[in-house]
């Protein structure tokens, strides 16, 4: 289904009682993004009330004060060993990045690092759980553990195999770190986050992987002989593979699974099969419809999936193949990357540094902003490159960058753009 048609029915469906909220990853690895106030306009148009950041950018969090959006913020990889070695660093990070924004901005989770367990840095692997424990203790000292969960996101590469789903298990080299981490999640009630991209399976073997199967469209489906369950889309099979691996590690009933990243690129290199605007619209549109309907996976039909779509904007400074820079629902100027059918107010008139290109006299958004300070993590200006994770890639790439400048707070917003 075209995304244009899906979004026509998304708003009332998502607003219905008990309907799961749509999540959006708000990445900022670019030098041409609009300020967060403009991003708020687009998120409101999408009816997205859950936002995931890859840092704890104070400018974004301040801009969303009073919006009603729930934020997941990230503690960057480079700080993980520091928190593991010095618990006082966790307290300092909470004081600098969490406390100033509560309760005006809702922060519901912190991800410690990103895909750490599929990296090759043994010091990082050993530091992950101690860093998570230190951060949880720092939040407990502020009586925030009932409000803010501590977790971390994983690539599907933590699995030794993913099909059939019932046979999935964590890799042997990962299991010594994963088992105690699952224990921590079960004890604290935090979710297990997985970055899952059916696109990579299609890209790797377009001749054998059914495009309809990965795009949530009618197809013959595949069956898991051990369970008798039938799968009509790959994302459900990937999530149930993670579920089986967790159950095999004896934590299945106590840990919720959330899809922290999934999406489809609208453009790619010549050898990146399927990276087209049409396929991106079909994948994200059908995914959003699935979320709005509150459907669970075949192994857990009564548990609606919580999903974060990757991503809000195309990000021009991401390394790797062209697809990495084209996962956005929107271009940096706020126009749709493909036909999303969202009638959001224009956000044109913004320069990449967050200032107006029309001397504040045009643009039609009604937004007036103040330039904010740099720095996002209470320690320094850099956080890290966060590229889309391919399950086939067993070695996680280290990513470093300086985030694009944004602004600190809304001075005034047009009443028509307020969040309900």
UniProtKB/TrEMBL annotation:
Gene Ontology terms: biological process: carbohydrate metabolic process
Top-level EC class: hydrolase
Reaction(s) catalysed by this chain's protein: Hydrolysis of (1->3)-beta-D-glucosidic linkages in (1->3)-beta-D-glucans
Pfam families, sorted: Glyco_hydro_17 (PF00332)
Native organism taxonomy: Eukaryota, Viridiplantae, Streptophyta, Embryophyta, Tracheophyta
Gene3D superfamilies xrefs: Glycosidases (3.20.20.80)
Spans annotated as Disordered: 349-374
Family statement drawn from the similarity comment of this UniProt entry: Belongs to the glycosyl hydrolase 17 family.
Protein name listed in UniProt: glucan endo-1,3-beta-D-glucosidase
Protein keywords: Glycosidase, Hydrolase, Signal
GO MF term set: glucan endo-1,3-beta-D-glucosidase activity
């Amino acid at each position: 289904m075209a995304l244009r048609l899906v979004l026509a029915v998304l708003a009332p469906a998502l607003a219905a009682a008990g309907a799961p909220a749509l999540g959006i990853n708000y990445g900022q690895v670019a030098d041409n993004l609009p300020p967060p106030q403009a991003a708020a306009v687009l998120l409101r148009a999408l009816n997205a009330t859950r936002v995931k950041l890859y840092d704890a950018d104070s400018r974004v969090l301040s801009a969303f004060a009073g919006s009603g959006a729930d934020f997941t913020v990230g503690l960057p990889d480079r700080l993980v060993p520091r928190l593991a070695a010095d618990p006082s660093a966790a307290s300092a990070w909470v004081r600098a990045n969490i406390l100033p924004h509560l309760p005006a901005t809702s922060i519901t989770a912190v991800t410690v690092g990103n895909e750490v367990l599929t990296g090759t840095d043994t010091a990082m692997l050993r530091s992950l759980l101690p860093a998570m424990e230190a951060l949880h203790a720092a939040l407990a000292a502020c009586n925030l553990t009932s409000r803010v969960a501590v977790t971390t996101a994983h690539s599907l590469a933590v699995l030794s195999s993913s099909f059939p789903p019932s046979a999935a298990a964590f890799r042997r080299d990962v299991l010594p770190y994963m088992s105690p981490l699952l224990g921590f999640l079960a004890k604290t009630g935090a979710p297990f986050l997985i970055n899952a991209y059916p696109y990579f399976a299609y890209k790797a073997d377009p001749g054998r992987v059914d495009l309809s199967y990965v795009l949530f469209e009618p197809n013959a489906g595949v069956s898991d002989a051990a369970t008798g369950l039938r799968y009509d889309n790959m994302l459900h099979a990937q999530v149930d593979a993670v579920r089986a691996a967790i159950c095999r590690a004896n934590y299945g009933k106590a840990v919720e699974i959330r899809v922290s990243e999934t999406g489809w690129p609208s453009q790619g290199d010549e050898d990146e099969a399927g990276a087209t605007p049409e396929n991106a619209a079909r994948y994200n549109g059908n995914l959003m419809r699935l979320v709005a309907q509150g459907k669970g996976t075949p192994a857990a039909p009564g548990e609606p999936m919580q999903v974060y779509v990757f991503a809000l904007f195309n990000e021009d400074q991401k390394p790797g193949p062209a697809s990495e820079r084209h996962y956005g629902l929107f271009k940096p100027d706020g126009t749709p990357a493909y036909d999303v059918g969202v009638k959001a107010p224009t956000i044109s008139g913004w320069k990449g540094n967050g200032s107006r290109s029309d001397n504040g006299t045009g643009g039609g958004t009604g937004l007036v902003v103040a330039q904010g300070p740099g720095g996002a993590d209470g320690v320094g200006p850099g956080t890290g490159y966060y590229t889309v994770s391919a399950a086939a890639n067993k070695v996680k790439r280290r990513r470093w960058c300086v985030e694009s400048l944004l602004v600190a707070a809304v001075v005034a917003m047009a009443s028509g753009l307020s969040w309900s």
